[in-house]
Specification:
Blueprint: H1 2-7, H2 11-24, H3 29-41, H4 45-58, H5 62-78, H6 82-94, H7 99-115, E1 118-129, E2 140-142, E3 149-151, E4 161-177, E5 180-195, E6 209-222, E7 226-239, E8 242-259, E9 262-275, E10 283-295, E11 300-313, E12 320-331, E13 338-351, E14 355-356, E15 359-360, E16 365-378, E17 386-399, E18 407-417
Antiparallel strand pairs: 1-4, 1-18, 2-3, 4-5, 5-6, 6-7, 7-8, 8-9, 9-10, 10-11, 11-12, 12-13, 13-16, 14-15, 16-17, 17-18
């Protein structure tokens, strides 16, 4: 009768029939579902979504949960509450009856996200590591060209522990026009360290850091294949609980999809850092990158990224030049319900002038590093489109100063969004 009332455009009768069903069983999911549809016909979107949510929580089968979540998403969208609609679509994905329906729901989610002026992304991970402090591999401090051998304190040597990181990125669309978009952006990065054993008065809080930033972003489309991105931001970094430096940055990037299989990007950035730690070490950092990704059909996707950072400062041991190259590979044929990604990188760090205490290092400091990483995303463990990712990383650094000869192996467990 309730279905017939809805079909004939009599929402009041359908709602009252839902009340009668609830008198028999207040946990009847059909009663709340019919009332949600009745309120939707009356365009009472917020109340209708509330009823759809009740239908979801009282649902007795995955199909009922899927239908209730889909309805709640449509009602929230009709009320122009796009973030709520995305939330319900994620729940619908979790209960989709088959892959075809799941893919269609994901496409709906992406369409709503495109309309939503608010965007945010949260990444978190926990990383057990045998070197949380970037400490030396040896207790000796040997400097090439200096006939003196020093001893490193226990806190300067590699320490075991756990690193917990959380990275939040958000933005809100301020204006949009033909081929352009303006957003306000904000970012919060937190890194917390727990030492397995405290050493020499050093604890995890002394190695923890936080960065907060707010800014503006302008996106400009130059045809269907080229996008320019301009970023302006300012913020502060804390280390060990104390302010380390304030910063302001300006960057520009160009992204070009040359073909369905080939894309590349270029970018430059300048960042000014004002020292807050009382070291008179204001710094200007200039950065540039170039990256390319290439699909090789059934074999997978290849990527290469080159990076340059150049820091100029009057502070001691603050001026340097660093080159990095990172190659990545993601095979198309994945083993079962696990997605694998591989990456390999090298880095060269050069300080023209470097001092250790009263010793001026001959020729400055030179570090060479190499790292390898394999990441496994467990698609079979999925909740609302979020999946766990496990990364194993190994890094080695060689230097003309043994204090900076570092070796680290870390296993990171995190959560990422599948779409």
């Amino acid at each position: 009768m309730a279905e017939a009332a809805l079909a004939s455009g009599r929402p009041r009768l359908a709602y009252e029939l839902g009340e009668g069903l609830q008198q028999a069983d207040r946990r009847n999911p059909h009663a709340h579902f019919y009332q949600a549809l009745a309120l939707a016909q009356a365009e009472a979107w917020r109340a209708a979504e509330h009823k759809a949510a009740r239908a979801y929580w009282h649902a007795r089968t995955p199909e009922q949960r899927f239908q209730a979540a889909q309805l709640a998403a449509r009602l929230s969208y009709a009320d122009t509450r796009f973030t709520g609609s995305q939330f319900w679509l994620r729940r619908a994905v979790n209960h989709a009856p088959d892959d075809v329906t799941r893919d269609a729901t994901i496409r709906s989610y992406r369409a709503v996200r495109h309309r939503n002026p608010l965007r945010f992304n949260l990444r978190a991970s926990v990383t057990p590591s045998d070197n949380v402090n970037n400490g030396a591999s040896s207790p000796l401090n040997v400097i090439d060209g200096v006939p003196v051998v020093g001893l490193l304190s226990p806190s300067a040597q590699a320490l075991e522990g756990v690193i917990a990181t959380a990275h939040f990125i958000g933005s809100y669309r301020l204006a949009q026009g033909e081929g352009r978009e303006t957003r306000t952006t904000w970012r919060l990065h937190s890194r917390r360290v727990h030492l397995s054993d405290s050493v020499g008065g050093l604890d995890g809080g002394d190695l923890s850091s936080t960065t907060a930033e707010a800014g503006l972003r302008q996106l400009l489309a130059q045809g269907p294949a080229i996008t320019w991105r301009l970023d302006l931001g300012a913020g502060r970094t804390w280390y060990g609980g104390d302010p380390l430096y304030d910063f302001a940055r300006l960057g520009v990037q160009r992204h070009h999809r040359a073909s369905p299989r080939l894309a590349w990007a270029l970018g430059v950035e300048i960042q000014g850092q004002r020292d807050e730690a009382g070291r008179n070490a204001d710094t200007s950092v200039y950065s540039a990158f170039a990256g390319i990704t290439r699909s090789i059909g059934e074999e997978g996707d290849l990527g290469l990224r080159l990076q340059l950072r150049d820091a100029d400062s009057d502070g001691v041991n603050r001026s340097f030049t660093q080159w990095s190259a990172i190659a990545s590979y993601r095979p198309s044929r994945q083993p079962g319900l696990v997605d694998l990604d591989f990456s390999l990188g090298v880095s060269s760090l050069d300080y023209d002038r470097f001092r250790i205490g009263f010793i001026a290092v001959p020729g400055g400091r030179r570090d060479e590093s190499v790292f390898a990483r394999i990441t496994a995303t467990l698609k079979s463990v999925n909740y609302m489109g979020f999946v766990p990712a496990i990364s194993l990383t190994h890094e080695q650094s060689r230097s003309n100063i043994s204090r900076f000869e570092v070796e680290e192996t870390a296993l990171s467990v995190g959560i990422r969004s599948e779409f």
